Amino acid sequence: MKINNKEISNDSKLTVFGGVNVIESDELLFQVAEKFKEISEKYDFNYVFKASFDKANRSSLDSFRGPGLDEGLESLQKVKDRFDLPLITDIHEPDQAKSVADVCDVIQIPAFLCRQTDLIVAASKTKKIINIKKPQFSSAKEMFHAVKKCNAAGNEKVILCERGNIFGYNNLVVDTLNFQILKQEGNPVFFDVTHSLQQPGMLEKSTGGRGQYVYELAKAGISQNIAGLFLETHPEPNEAKCDGPCALKLSELDSFMERVIALDEFVKNI
After folding, report:
1. Do the Cβ atoms of 190 and 160 come closer than 8 Å?
2. How much is the pTM?
3. In the chain, what are the domains?
4. Which residues form the DAHP synthetase I/KDSA domain (predicted)?
5. What does DSSP say about strands 129-133 and 158-162: parallel, antiparallel, or unpaired?
């Protein structure tokens, strides 16, 4: 499969799905998209802008969810028009698939929803690339059931994304062997490094996190010879309306990507 005429595979140069956790404002989207595009051209990696229009699986009723489908897609279209970037966003209900496919190049299935057959089938029928997050409660091998659902709906363009497993209360761990298992059927494998740093339900109304370790954890994933990295950033993570404790600070993005791309090239040239 290709985006921007560049191959997405476990042996190709790294692809990055990067952006913000949730749409807070057009200004924030533009700021992050501009920075990511500049850095992707500087270090020559394949880049897709990411933002969510709705965070449906929040810790609390009071948690910020985003602008919703219609307003969110309008904002994403503005990013596409202004910066000429491909887009990825997640869907939560089958009837969202077609509207999202009209704007986005990749449709993401959230981790908690990857067992929802109707959702996966609706996304697959759009013929867009499908990025399926591995649930925190599932083994790597179980992901191939979701892949088969996509294939049965006529879509072979399926990416599998590792994002850690529940380990006791308020904690996630990443088993690096999962990357090799997820690659067994030939699907491109991504690593959602920022969400793997979550501490679910740790804060009163939101998820905690350990964003200070984002580079160290990213190195572990990149060492496994994978197709891509999923990464969220924010100019001020402490002020982010969702998952701020896991996000990389935008001012650190250039240095982070310089090191990650160098490591990816080293691993794939061994």
Report:
1. yes
2. 0.93
3. 2-268 (3.20.20.70)
4. 7-266
5. parallel
